[in-house]
């Protein structure tokens, strides 16, 4: 993990507190504390110098407190956990929403998601030996779809391709592959697209808010937005979650007030896009353990979003947690199979066990079960999170006990 030995935060801690006490102390000195330096005996030059000194001091105080009002929030987590969906929700809740240009860009991305999703299912039909589930005409159509490259067609302009994709989604072999989706890489939430391809492929298609939230594009590099929330500036940073992207995280750890770690509950039986031998939930647990116990984050809020609640509730009805090799202890401890509440509590406990910090410096982890595509759910939970962050920020600044 990309943290150098002996690394320290360049702001916060004792230095910040000394600065605060110095400024607050100066601001609250009694009038006589300056040795009557503003008395009638001062020359015009001395008075001008004194006034200039006071102006500099006041500006320093304003700059200091302005800095305390900026809350830096990092969105971290494994790839496809829903981090970028939370990031989009912030734009809906606190920003200007999505412009016409934004929607046009998302329309292209959604078309790509539909095409690559159906192609993944066609490949799975071949790889999983499901060709006997369908006829020769459907297999020829699958071969045709597999030979289309991204960007080669516009689904809203080529109605024939849209009809073919829609037909394939209803094919029994494709549905059999979908039932075994844990065995290959596909975005589960894109089933919503497959169910309404007639709408998505229409010439006048404009993505809805839900369509935009469900869209998937790998985050590479860093995306940052600033929002005024409750009178404070929140700087929200989304960074790529794939293993190849994680080395870039360290550059954004400095002066971070809170980390929002996102993990997908529904991915307990799935494997990484970049490593098909690595269970996604195991990867998320290991990553959380490293982040939670990192010394750089000793004074940083840790907020855990156990995301994709809706997909988890659907999956647990037919895929027992204990059937996954990494989580056999689920049944061994007497928990009821196919019980969504017991399953959520089980994984919450798993994450909490990764917190190895000890008293008196035991780190509090605030855990929430979320559905990042549900704006009301995200708003409700984020309101609770930001209240905690702002309260402790004010306490650290001396405004609250």
Q: What is the helix fraction of residues, given as a range?
A: 40-55%
Oligomeric assembly = single chain
Structural class: alpha/beta
Q: What is the element string, with H for helices and E for strands? A: HHEHHHHHHHHEEEHEHHHEH
What is the tally of helical segments?
15
Gross morphology: globular
Strand fraction equals: 5-15%
Strand adjacency order, main sheet: 2-3-1-4-5-6
| Topology, number of strands | 6
The biggest beta sheet reads: 6 strands, mixed
N-to-C span: 36 Å
- Enumerate the spans where pLDDT stays under 50 for 5 or more consecutive residues: 1-37, 394-401
| Radius of gyration (Å) | 27 Å
Notes on the structure:
- The protein has 401 residues and is α/β, with parallel strands linked by helices.
- The protein is built from 15 helices and 6 strands.
- It has helices spanning 13-27, 44-68, 83-94, 100-127, 136-146, 159-169, 172-179, 191-194, 197-200, 209-214, 280-292, 309-315, 329-332, 340-352, 375-397, and strands at 70-77, 222-229, 232-239, 258-264, 301-307, 365-369.
- A 6-stranded mixed sheet has the order 2-3-1-4-5-6, sandwiched between helices.
- Strand 2 and strand 3 (232-239) form a beta hairpin.
- Helix 4 packs across helix 7.
- It starts with 12 loop residues before the first helix and ends with a helix.
